[in-house]
Amino acid sequence: MAEFTNFEARERFVSTACLINAVHPGGVLWGGSMNMFRILLADDHPVFRLGLCSLLGSHEGWEICGEAIDGREAVEKCQQMKPDLLILDICMPRLNGVDAARQILRHNPLQRILVVTDVGSEQVVRDCLEAGVRGWVFKSDASADLTTAVEALQWQRSTFSSRVSDLILKGYLQRYCVNPAVAIPPRLTLREREVVQLVGEGKTSKEVATMLGMTLKTAETHRSNIMIKLNLHSTVELVLYAVRNEIIHVALPAMVLRGPENGNGRAEIHQVAN
């Protein structure tokens, strides 16, 4: 067996560590193994989560540490697992991605969040930026864009799809150039937005109270205060407010087109997804 002086042993250790860091940027040698970059996925579509697991899990140095199927579970698992990165969708039940991000970043301002969604709303982007989200990729972007975004956040750099800047610029021009005197709508608290989302999803006051861990009277008080603050007079108006302000997202039904008649004298019906 070859023998090495203390100097030679130290030089060999440093060279090995440098080689490992070159292969796994940002990695740390500890106890003979690499610290993995841990990613938590939050999306309510199982097939999409499966695709992300396959794509990101195959990247050396990354691991999927958990999955969440709605915003509330994402908040809970972030606090429990403390992932290096949360990949978050916007359109999720029980708690949307914007409010989930607000809650997560309020408890841990250093949590890295990458929004991966098909929502193309300037207001939603702005809300996420104000909350502290520092990464955004659209689901229609290439898979290489997603991995590049994850790598950027791994290195503590912000990363946004080019469409995000286009949305913000367009929203700015519409808001301040076309109608500079537009009234600013009243802002709801995080708790009020939670109540609005659950009511918009069809939950009763009793169900809202159970899900949010409050008394029925408190849930009804929140609902009443929201109606007064927004100057609304019915549940229907409250649901419309939730849809228009993208607290909840409604999938439009498929369009039905009547095609030309077939050989039997009957018109063919085609469904077109939105």
Structure description:
- By secondary structure, this protein is α/β, with parallel strands linked by helices.
- It folds into two domains: 36-174, Response regulator (Rossmann fold, 3-Layer(aba) Sandwich), CATH 3.40.50.2300; 189-274, Arc Repressor Mutant, subunit A (Orthogonal Bundle).
- The protein contains eleven helices and ten strands.
- The strands form three sheets. The protein has a six-stranded parallel β-sheet with strand order 4-3-5-6-7-8.
- Helix 3 runs parallel beside helix 4, helix 8 crosses helix 10 (216-230) and helix 8 (190-200) packs across helix 11 (235-244).
- It is globular, with a radius of gyration of 24 Å.
- It starts with 5 loop residues before the first helix and ends with a strand.
- The model is unreliable at 9-33 (pLDDT under 50).
SSE string: HEEEHEHEHEHEHEHHHHHEE
CA-atom Rg in angstroms: 24 Å
Number of strands: 10
Q: Which structural class fits the helix and strand makeup?
A: alpha/beta
Mean pLDDT: 80
Q: TL;DR?
A:
With 274 residues, the protein is of the alpha/beta class.
Secondary-structure blueprint of this entry?
Blueprint: H1 6-23, E1 29-30, E2 33-34, E3 37-42, H2 46-57, E4 62-68, H3 71-81, E5 85-88, H4 97-107, E6 112-117, H5 122-131, E7 135-138, H6 143-154, E8 159-160, H7 162-178, H8 190-200, H9 205-212, H10 216-230, H11 235-244, E9 255-261, E10 267-272
Parallel strand pairs: 3-4, 3-5, 5-6, 6-7, 7-8
Antiparallel strand pairs: 1-2, 9-10
